[in-house]
Amino acid sequence: MLPVTTPSPIGELSAENQSAGKQAGNQQANNQLAGNQQAGNQQEGNQQAGNQQEGSYSAGSPHVAATPVIPRARTMAPVFHELTLFHGSMGAGKSTLALQNAYNRRQAGRPGVLLTSMDRAGSGVLSSRLGVMADAIEVINTTDLVTLISAEVPAGGFVIVDEAQFLNVEQVEQLAWAVDELCVDVDCYAIATDFRSQLFPGSRRLFELADHTISLQVEVTCWCGRPGRQNARIEDGRVARFGAQVAVGDISDAASDAVSGAASDAASGAAEVTYRVLCRRHWREGNPGSA
Ligand SMILES: [Zn+2]
């Protein structure tokens, strides 16, 4: 690999072209330099090719800093608004990051709203298990997000949606429409898969439509120490395989504590339901550990 600061005939070529006013030649030389940095072992071949094209330039010149060539089209690109999905298992810090990003944008003077569904702390609140919280607009299954965003967020503003796995497909499509037509940025924070390790419909549609999908890298581990991948539902000490995708108390259970949180399942009235992140092996084996 050729360091940028190494004296290079390519640099000399660049300097000569500057004196000769050959701007196009400069760009070509810089492109060659960039190529050489990526594939240093091709340097000799590129130099020879350059010699044949340009005639003369000498080796051993002072180093010339590589000037990145920015395509004209990029410098004049319009501002695009984007739909972004941040996804991770329980405990990956989604709500914490959502709150931080909302705070930063408001500090920067951008208008925007926080949306959530069935947060651990109750309706109309977006909370992190670390204790931070903020007021948010509660989204239910019938909420029209186009109407909501049109009324609440001006062009150039932002929308942050926590617990976005509970959006329905139509609502995700409304968010995509709002990004394109209302010129707002929408960030969704979601668990990708349910206790059966199957995508939530809202999360699936976000994967399909988002401009960017970002997997949160906060470490979440199974009781065995392996990376936690599966958001297991534990009923009476056993890993559940069947049941409603969203059980009563689902979010408050999942979010209050991924390891030991517990709440009664109002539907069954008897079974104790908790949620726990397991590695794939122990989720497959149905071994929830001894927590
Ligand atoms: Zn495990």
Overview of this structure, please?
By secondary structure, the protein is of the alpha/beta class. It folds into three domains: 9-74, no CATH class; 83-215, Rossmann fold, CATH 3.40.50; 230-285, no CATH class. It is 35% helix and 17% strand. It has ten helices and twelve strands. Zinc ion binds next to α10. The site of zinc ion has 7 residues, from α10.
Provide a short characterization of the protein structure.
This protein has helices at residues 9-20, 23-38, 43-54, 72-75, 94-107, 145-152, 169-181, 201-209, 250-256, 280-285; strands at 83-87, 112-116, 125-127, 133-135, 137-138, 158-161, 185-190, 212-215, 230-235, 238-239, 262-264, 272-278.
Jot down its keywords.
12 strands, globular, six-stranded parallel β-sheet, 291 residues, 35% helix, four-stranded antiparallel β-sheet, Rossmann fold, alpha/beta
